[in-house]
Amino acid sequence: MRLHGSIAFIVGLILMLGIGWLVYPLALYETTDQPLQFSHKTHTGEKAGMACEDCHGFREDGTFAGIPRLENCANCHSEAQGTSAAEKALIEKYVSTNQEIPWLVYSRQPENVYFSHVQHVKLAEIKCERCHGPHGTSETLPPYQRNRISGYSRNIWGQSISGISTAPWDGMKMDDCEHCHAERSVGTSCMGCHK
Amino acid sequence: MKIDRRHLLKFMGGSAVGVVLSPLPWKVVDDVSIWTQNWSWIPVPVRGETIFRHTSCALCPAGCGLKVRCIGAQPIALSGLTGHPTSHGFVCPGGLLGHHLPFSSRRVTQPVRLTKGGREAAPLSTEQVASDLGGVLARLKADPAAGRFAIIDALPGRSTSLAYRRLASQFPGGAYILPPDGIRQSLGVFDGVAGDAYPELGVDLDGARTVVSFGADLFEGWGTPGRFARKPQSSDGGPRLTQINPRYSNTACMADTWLPVRPGSEAILALGLAGVIVKERLFNSGLSTLIDGLDEIPDFRDLLAAIPVTRAAEVCGISPEAVMTTAREMGANAPCLALLGAGYSGGPFGEDDRLAVNFLNLLSGAVGAPGGLVPRRSLPQMEIEGLTGDLVPPTDLSEVPDGSIAFLMIDATVPRQAIPAALIERKLVKDKAVVVSFSALEVQAIGRSHYVLPVPLYLEALEEIPTSSDSPFATLSYSVPLVPAPPAASAPVEWIGRMAPTAGLDWAPLSADTLNEARIRAVWDCKRGSVYSYADGTTKANSEFASAEELGTAFKAGACWLDSSADSVKPDLTKSPYFKPETWGRLKRAVNARIEVRSKPSDDRVLLMPFTTAFLATASPLAGKLTHESGLYLRPGEALMSPSTAGRLALREGQKAEVETSKGRLRVRIRLDESAVPGTVFVPVSETDADPRNLCDIGEDCIWRATPAKLRRLDV
Fold first, then answer.
1. Residue B15 is nearest to which of A16, A21, A110, comparing CB atoms?
2. Cα angle vertex B489, ends B484, B494, to 5°?
3. Is the CB of B13 less than 8 angstroms away from the CB of A9?
């Protein structure tokens, strides 16, 4: 009788551990492909030899331009640069119709967060990879995983459902910002980011 | 195996442990908390490109330069402009959070009629309110015996102010009333000493070496915030500041010396200091003949003789050494400025205080000298059709007879601390007067109004910012529209234009744009001064602008005009009131009366002093939360007093008590702190029924600084 009770306990335990660790993440995130496949590796590698700032640059007033607009792409891709399906889609769906590409931004923060790229990249000389990881050398764009409850990307919380970072760039929550500031002995204040 | 209730409970127990050991509950809590930030009805800044705009803050006449960070055309952050010639990059808390105001829950978006003392509001259409009020004005015009028309202008000196004066001129006995302004009224002692071309004096704080401040909260909103806020950052420590204040205010905290005087004794201290300066001949040597000539006035001699240092110190509650040291510092460390403070809360000082304190400026040679009170021109006069002819002169509320106003308009477009409602009511024809407010927010300024007409808020329209009372030269800047105003919001002149046909007014159609264009043209026409551009930090001579339109474009991109200084103007000090015997007779009577009051101490009485800073911190929900929760400021309904006074009245920290004056009672919670001088209870001004100004005795001169009161414990 006691054994049966223990089995019931363990079954409940394992079932909920499974739901919490395995099923819940699957149910939590909905996966969407980017509107267009894009190879950072092709652009930053030997073939094109571009740097991050060539597309994700700073304006003259110091503000960060973020995701490049179509006109940046069209500078080189006014005509097809290859025969891939992605190249064909870029030209036909976006360049020729002059429609902006609706990229899904992995690092998009809530509206109440202010992040200055120029302060971090120019002033603190932090490499893009510190927060964005090896994104700049990726061959393909990973699917965008949207949290069904919060509405933000999985990249904000981090890949592990436990919230434990597996790499310095894994996670872009306030804890991650504070951790990095503490490492560098940089102060934190509410109004610094929540302006 | 038979599954029974025990198995089920064990299974549930295991499940509960499993849930806790999984990330599920913690992640759900985190995600749900973020989800609550994204509800559709919560206003969030739109997504878009980050751009920067430049403007001037229109929340007070200081007109601080601002850099505005916008995302998708929505202003989301304001910051000061370091190179700005008058604000020097500083902005007060109210100015920093000004972009929150359009989202205030107290935003007035349509005309309303208030009843039951403002507790009930009935919305009206624009046409209906214009017709109703036009009818009232027509009846008033036809029957002057019913009372007078009056308008209170929250921000005098604008082109709109000219329109108000034109409106008041159309009614027999019409009055154009200036709001209480401690700086303007104080400097008014010297009006006219520099000739007709320089009708006013400004304050050259930047050049002063010593500042003796009688309650002027230099770090908390007196004049232009940035002018004195630079002091701690100056390499030489900036001007030496002696703060004379019954409360250890934030300015007193930042001062080099704090003299905690008894409320009401400021004039006696000023004359005590003057006595030392005259006796030890510490005054400006160039004024010897003038000052020696004052000895011919018997009341002057008697007055200074009646207030020796020991007597002044005793009455003021400070040491004789402090009086001597302050006087000698004033003499040794010129240029020296004596400033008189008080904002809208404690109310301005009275005429006697103004005369006594400004006598120190005369003695130190500050009048007309760099680092002192310097002559300045008015803003160039504008010419505009419909605003010509005889206009009623500006007047102070104290000059309007009690019970005489039948129709009162209040321009509350600048949401500053209001005149006490009791004072307004005293001036109205009892039970018959109509009060109309132009306001963007349901703030205290509109209390007791019968109609509230919505106007564009700061950042919603091109707003003119005239010269600040403390500025050493004339200035002009504009706050530019960055967000749309509610459809029903119109400029006050446009509201008046709608009432004009029914009211039978001789009123040419005017719009805010017409007035602004006329003002800019007048400045361009004068060819004087220079224009500082916010975007690139450059200064260009006014005469270099090819047209008024080009100057207007510069203003709309963010710029301020600064008049040229008046260094060569030498004021004629004999035109000041100090060389008239009646001035000293008046001061002698006032001082004797105050010393008499001091000599009759009372065990159970205290002095009630309302107070606040000039900052609009509470206008923003964020600032209100921060200032209240930080404990930096007293909350409405709290009362600050010294432990010694509390001990005398058997009161302790946190206790509930009742303040009682001849005007009524107010429940407060006691807060004890050594920062309050004994014998005084300080209660913060509030926009609720807990406003201590409703309890104040307001004199014939419309001063409400301190009122005798009783304090009684409630929880015994």
1. A16
2. 120
3. yes
